[in-house]
């Protein structure tokens, strides 16, 4: 009789565990899916693709983390664009005087006379 009672309680516990898993599984899967999206977005950011945005929104901690990652990506893209513009400006400024010097050098070595800019 005692063995039958233990089997009954074990069956109830197994049923409760199965029902619990069925109810918690979608919730856990939604959490892991959102974390997978954040992981993929941060991996793309680490590769230097600053146009990446995390497709995770919400008022919970994971949603706020997605917003923080998007803000970071936007700032990184802005900094990268500023750096490109700066380097282009520097290259232009450094290249312009040298281009003039090379032109003058080529003209003087070929025997052409340069007009003086002063009168």
General description of the model:
Helices cover 79% and strands 0% of the residues. It is mostly helical and 119 residues long. It has helices at residues 2-46, 61-109. Helix 1 runs parallel beside helix 2. The chain is rod-shaped.
Short description, anyone?
With 119 residues, this protein is an all-alpha fold. Helix content is 79%, strand content 0%. The longest helix has 49 residues.
Please outline the helices and strands:
Layout: H1 2-46, H2 61-109
Helix pairs in contact: 1-2
Features:
119 residues, mainly alpha, 2 helices, 0% strand
Contiguous low-pLDDT stretches (5 residues minimum) are: none
Overall morphology:
rod-shaped
- The total count of strands amounts to 0
Indicate the percent of residues in helices: over 70%
Content of β-strand:
under 5%
Largest sheet, in brief, is: none
**What is the rounded distance between the termini?**
122 Å
């Amino acid at each position: 009789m005692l063995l039958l009672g233990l089997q009954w309680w074990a069956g109830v516990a197994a049923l409760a565990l199965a029902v619990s898993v069925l109810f918690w599984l979608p919730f856990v899967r939604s959490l892991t899916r959102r974390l997978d999206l954040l992981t993929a977005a941060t991996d793309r950011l680490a590769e230097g693709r600053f146009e990446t945005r995390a497709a995770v929104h919400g008022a919970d901690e994971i949603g706020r983390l997605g917003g923080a990652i998007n803000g970071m990506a936007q700032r990184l893209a802005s900094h990268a664009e500023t750096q490109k513009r700066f380097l282009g400006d520097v290259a232009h400024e450094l290249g312009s005087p040298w281009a003039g010097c090379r032109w003058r050098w080529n003209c003087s070595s070929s025997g052409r006379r340069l007009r003086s800019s002063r009168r």
